[in-house]
Amino acid sequence: MKSKHSNFLVIWLHSNIDEQEEKLDYLSKHLQRYISSIKTFTDIDNCIDYVTDLIDTQVFLILSDRVVEHCLTLIENIPQIYSIYHLSNQTDENLCNNLIKDMSEFQENLIPITIIPNANLHCLDPSFMYIELLKEILLQMKFDQKSKDEFVDMCLIKEVEYETSHRIIDEFDQNYKPSSAIQWYTRDCFIYRMLNDSLRNQDTDVILTMGFFIRDLHRQIELLYQHLANEKPSIVYRGQGMFNNDFERLRENKDGLLSFNHFLSTTCDQDLAYARACSAQDDSELTGVFFEMHIDLSIQTTPFASLDKVSYYGDREKEILFSINTIFRIRQIEQMDERLYKVKLLLTSDNDPELNKLTDHIRHEMICDSKSGQLTYLLVKMNNLNKAEEICQKKIKLPSDYTTMSNDARLHNIIGYIKTQQNDLNSAFIHLFEGLKIRQEILPSDHIDLAASYNNIGELYHTMGQLSNALDYHSRARSIWEKQLESNDSRLAKSYNNLGEVHRSMGEKAPALMYHKKALVIYEKTLPPTHPDLAMSHNNIGLVYGTLGQNSLALQHLQKAFEIVQKSVQINHPSLALILNNIGELHTSMGDYQKALTYHEKARKIQEKSLKPDHPDVGSSYNYIALVHFGTGRYLNALIYFSKAMNIYHKSLPSIHPDFIEIHMSMGLLYYFIKRHSLSLLHFQKALQISRISLSTNHQYRAIIPQVIATIRRDFIKFSLSNNFSFINPNCIVIEDELD
């Protein structure tokens, strides 16, 4: 195996496939648990072209005698091919068994394991928290026939991706009932792979569409767990391969925690688990791991159940299935053979105290009248903005009474916030002001919900670069919250934080630092130490210190922000990229360009997975990378990245946005360095024009830019005369309104 792919298919390459119709039927019938069909080829070149075009898919390839000698050297190093089977070397039954064994191991080896560093023996990955909160909501939601219909529709869309047949989807549609969840999960025609893929990748769209099934499966396991009584096993086993680097992390973290953020399959059959672990040794990229899992029956843990009487395939594997989010402690690791290890685990109720505090706090923040409201809040936290908006849009109704109007105003406010984060500013404007209009009609002028509308409108205006309007609306929100809330309420801290950011954008460093420090004091009193809002507070203070030239203090706060946010958001959350870019920008200003570039490249990798290509934050990353190249004298590279940033800004920002000022200044300075004075003047002129519209009269750029323009004009004239460009008339070099 070459890489971690979640999908697979079986391909049969034979010079005359019609001769093998019986074998094909036999395999198709016995492999239906894993695939719906076998793809066949008779032409070697067509087969190779098809396989090499596959993305995130591995191939189990069957070859006949006639083609082996012609194509083996061509295909053996293709990364999409997981394994190759020679038809002549085995009977139909043996071939079928080998395929089943390998496909089963392939799926098991993909099961994600979160290994917690033993530097903090009680630390869990934040993804554990989000799956736990999502599970809690799903278990309490009401699902109906429409939920199943939506899932069936999704299966039809994903039919090719999961090699699923209409027949099996129709059978699920007709026959599924809550009490058959385990049967369908163990049958694994498509549900097993789809569910575990979504949990592994935290694909909330699929997780939510399968919410009814997750609830049914968990409840069935829970019911069986209660009926096990004294028959619960004290030891279960699991054999699988782990990628070598993942296993090294596990081996280095004895006594640490290990979590499975999905439904976990184990067995009471020690020999079966051991055989599966041994089989991983055949792949040089894997280490075979034989897990021996000890269960303390006296403590309350994640429920588990024996599937002997309820599995689709009976009791042949003596399977024990655990529900989502099982935690073990790594007790012992011993080598059994080359690249084969026995790992003793203890099922535990231990947890991460800091993550528990954060989970409880977010659980409290999510409190509202409906499960859909809780789900929306959580999805926003998880950065699944599209799904959160979809839920809100479904809930908006024509206002008919106070309660409905109040709820619609809240939904408009949430959608407006989401649209702001997505940089869909026109839609954000419509929804936020619609929500404000409703609230102004039904609420007193000092109601805290009005403050929430003012706050989000302030954020919108800040994103649009309209700083005076942003300051106005954030000030309105602060006035209400200061009047209505306790002095240590986190909403008041959010208001101070937003005011601080607007003042920083306006170049007013003293009030910016003052507001950010006030926000930090409140956050430190009211939030868990790993809350993302606390991280952003440190980030913003670090940025202000950076503008003040106090680099050591700036770096201290930015590193603190990154340390916190790593513990509170998922691995590809945009806030991680934001802080990485800010640390990189600080290193650029300190002249440490290589370190700066490393941070910016890490940020870009996160943004590739979490933001649209034309999001302004992506443009900012290109701008930061350009500055690094500029600082190291790689002017052509700098120009390329400045141009990328400028193109994104033109697509995503209003034409007078303040972010244009700095990039025009940077490009103007670059052109000045390479003696392209006319282009340099052009960019500084544009920077000046935008600054007069977007910045206050006392902003430092309003004074600096005209001085730079005057200097460039003088140098342009000198350069022209010294290079015999005497035909240039100095009086024709005019920059309109250079001075205020």
UniProtKB/TrEMBL annotation:
Pfam family, one: TPR_10
Keyword Repeat attributed: yes
Keywords per UniProt: Repeat, TPR repeat
TPR repeat feature ranges: 451-484, 493-526, 535-568, 577-610
Keyword set includes Repeat: yes
Coiled-coil boundaries: none
Domain of life: Eukaryota
Name used for this protein in its record: Uncharacterized protein
